[in-house]
Amino acid sequence: MPTSTQLPKIAIIGAGPSGLTLTSLLHKSHPTLSLTLFDLRRRPSPEELTQPSGSLDLRKDTGLLAITECGLLPKFQSLTVECSEATLIADKTGDVKLALEGQEGDRPEVSRNALQELLFNSIPSEFVKWEHKVLSVTPAKTPQKWTLAFSDQSAKNTTDVEDSEEYDLIVGADGAFSKIRHHLTTVKPYFSGISCITMTIPQINTNHPKLSTKIGQGSFAALGDSKSLMAQRGSQGSARIYLMLSATPDLTTPSAEIENVPQSGEWNCADLRNKMLSEDFYASWGPEMREILKAAFDAEIEKEEKMDVKPLYMLPTNHTWNHAPGLTLIGDAAHLMTPFAGEGVNQAMLDAVELSQAISSSLQFQDQGERTVAMMNEAIAEFEKKMWQRMKPVMEGTWDNLEIMFKDEQAPKKVVTLFEGFMAAHKAALETPKPEEQ
Q: CA neighbours within 13 Å on the CB side: how many for 113?
C-alpha cells in the first residue's frame, strides 16, 4: 500500500453535500490519500441533526448514484421515511390541480439533516477541520501547488494565528459565494428575482390536522400572482413552509429595478406576518392557504427571533471558466441555480462522483511523482468540460421553470403540464427494455 506522501495532497472547502460526498468517496477508494475538508461552521451536534430541516429528493442517476458509490445505500434507505414522494400542485385558492403518488422509490425524499449526518459518519473525524476559516488561496512557491491560508475559529483556540499549507489540489465546494471561484472566473452570482421565506410548523398532524391533510404526506405547491406557497413534510411530524416571492428582501422594490441585492433582509416576525397577509402578497389567496401561512408565522413568532427574507441567486446558465491546474469547483460554487427543478443537490453529488473518478484515474500512476499530479490535472480539466456540458441544459431548464412559475399568468396549469410530461417520460423509460433485456 503506497504512503500518502506518494499521493497528491488535496483540500476540499465546504462540508455541504458535494464536499462531504467527495471526501467520503476519495477516502473510500484511497484510504491513505492526504485529504482535508475545511468548514467554517462547527460540527452540528446529534441533537441539532434531529431537528426539522428541508427535504431533498435524491434521483436514481445522480444523488442516489452518489450514495451507492459511497457504500451508504442500505443506511440511506432507512432514513427515507419522513416525506413521501407524493406531490400536490394547487392554485392560489388551494384547489388541487394535480396529485401524484410518487415515483415508486426512484426519487426518495430525505431530510437535509439526515443526509448530512449519514455523510458525516462516513468520514473519519480527523479529516475534517470544523470552525476553520479560509483566509486566502494563493499560488505556492512550489510549482503547480497552491497555498491555503486559514485560521482556527473554534472557542478552544484563544489565538487568532494564521496557518497555511500547500496543496496539489484545492476543490471549492463552498457554495454560492465561493472563496475559490474568483481565482477561476470574474463571473459572480446574481439575483434571480425571487426571494424566499422559510418557516417550520411543528407537530402539524396534532396541532393543525386540517392543514396537515391539505398539504398531504409529501410535497405541496400552490402557485399564483407571481408567488408560491410550498410545503414539505419533515421530521418529528413537522412541515417545512416556503414562501417564494417575486421581490427583493426588503419586499418593497421591484426586482427588475435592483442590481445589487443584499444577501438577506431581516424582519420582525409579526411585521413580516402582517406584510405577507396584506393585499400586496397573500390576502387574496384561499382561506386554507392563508391558514397555513398564519400557522407557520405563529410558530416562528413563538421563537422570539428575527426572520430572514433571503434572495435566491444564480450563475449564468452557460457558466464556464479557464482551467487552472490545482483548482476546481463543484456544486453551487460551479453552477448555482434556483431550486425550481430539484436538481441542485443531485447534480452537486454527481459532480463529486465524477470528480472522484477523475482523481482516481490518475492515482493508478502514483509512482510517477510529479507526473501523477500532472495527469490528475489533465483528468480534472476533462471532468470540468463534461460537467459544463451536463449542467447547461439543467440550468436552462431550471430557469425555464422559474419563468413559468413566477412570470406566467397560467402558472398552475403550465406547471401541471410540466409534471404530466415528466410522468409520461418516466413511464416510457420504465417500459423501455434495457439493452440486455432485448
A: 16
